[in-house]
Amino acid sequence: MSKLQTTSGAGASTSERIRAIAGEPRPQWRQLIALQRLVGWRIVKNNKSILVCHILLWFYGLWGLLFAGLGCIGLHDDPQGHAAIIPGTLGFATLFLWLLAITFPLGDAQVQPRQTPTLPLSMRDYLVATLCGSIIQSRGILVIVWTVVFSACVLVALPTLSASVVVAVVLGAIGTILITIVGMCFIPLIFGADHSAQKDKLAKYSVVIFLVVILAANIMLRLENPQNWIMEFGRFIQWTPLAAPAGIIAHTLHGSLMGALLCLLITVATVAVLIWFIAVALRHQIAEPLVRETAKERQSTVDSTVINPRALLLPGLQWRPWSIVGSVGVRSFVKDSRTASLVWMLPILAIFLAYMAYSTDNYMMSVIYTCFFALILASQSANVFGLDGPGTGLYLSSGVSSRALLLGRAFPLYLLEIVAVVLMSVASVLLFIVTGHSDDSTWFWFWASMTFGLGAALSSIGIGFLLSTYNPFAMSKPGTSPWGDRSGFKAAALVSSLISVFTGWVPLIPGIVCIVVQYNVEVGLWLRILGYVLAILVPLAVHVLFLNLGAKKYEQSGAEIYQKVKNWISA
């Protein structure tokens, strides 16, 4: 007799009959995973840029796996001498994937209790769904494939295999997968912190850390023997949670049982602690799904409402409409996580680009890098009304002239560009002088770097005036992480970025021609000075022209601009 016939008798309850027809309900955590996959699929479907990011992630991940596999060749000749390459490679890969979990939201974030406060789900349901859901997503699958293939390369490269080595490789692979995936689950919970001030700080820190890692990797790959540096890195990082699983393999190859056991202990403890922190964060969200404002944030709100308006002015500025707008813009520029990352990255990028120019032993590269640096920074002027969002309506009702408004909104970038160009030029010339690579043309290229860098900034900011008025688009609200800002996925954002970067150098062409001719033909000093002057005057003329055109467009279409930017987009 079938189960349906058995439960359809007179003694069967209604719930039993329904269960007999529909089958046993799926566990809650499985339903939560299904919800996560549905949400992720819809995000990718509605935003093709996310799909491109997934493809790029796999492309560069597999490309890195190829180089990592080739790095295992040295294990065949000297397993003990090259054992540190294993924790160095896996540790760097784990660190990189953890940073990607912060910096690139690919639509695969787990559903958190704060987003579903009305669903009758327990902490265990969320915990299991978070851990299991991460394994079957794009990044989780990449971690598994990357680790398994690299472990296979290690086994193939070793000249002889013993049972202890095989066990160590298996344990190392499992530990690496667990630490990487559990860490990628833990990090979004931290960066989804309760309070905006904490989120802003974490977002700024993530920008700096990610930039430092990328630049360090770039410098390492440019060295004569990068494998030695990776091994030195591995000898240090194998004692940290990032590469402790790989340390099990390295210590086993060295025959150090105590070292392998200690790395195993670090691995187990790290996984346990991360899971415990995830459980605590989930339990906290279930207990308090609504975000509460801290006392410090409440006091900050009170202070901002009673502040003296003249206290907003930067020192040395007079009480004028453009100076008021500019002063407020500077203060918000360094506080808003959408733009403050530029200030944090400024010294790091300047020093790195100066080093890149020095490493090529070519003075001209310092000028090129300075101009490129200036163009990238000035591209922030391409959507000033989008940054203000609903606040743009205040400009319409305040009576501030369009020229004063555009100049005031560009004032933070004027200051930033001056600091950036001077810092980049001085860093480049100091590197050449301190290392003994300077010659008679050093100061020639220094002034070229200064003038052409400032010229590139002027022309690019001028183009930004046009783009802000002719091509405005909505952005994410203030406080949004620069990595989670989806406004950059818009077609208007792509158009603005391309135009700002690739056309900002065009007004520099007359100055470039003068400098190149004088440097190669030795016509005379006057032509060099003319090149310096043209590098400033032509971009300045373009800057003033586009300022007037942008101001005229704002006077005619201010209401239309406001309609396009008045609503923040969801991050």
Automatic annotation (TrEMBL):
| Residues spanning the membrane | 49-73, 85-106, 126-158, 165-190, 202-221, 259-282, 341-358, 364-385, 406-433, 445-470, 491-519, 525-547
- This protein's species is Corynebacterium uropygiale
Q: Which domain of life is it from?
A: Bacteria
Protein name, UniProt field:
Uncharacterized protein
Q: Which UniProt keywords apply?
A: Membrane, Transmembrane, Transmembrane helix
Instruction: Decide whether keyword Secreted is in the record.
Output: no
Taxonomic lineage of the native organism: Bacteria, Bacillati, Actinomycetota, Actinomycetes, Mycobacteriales
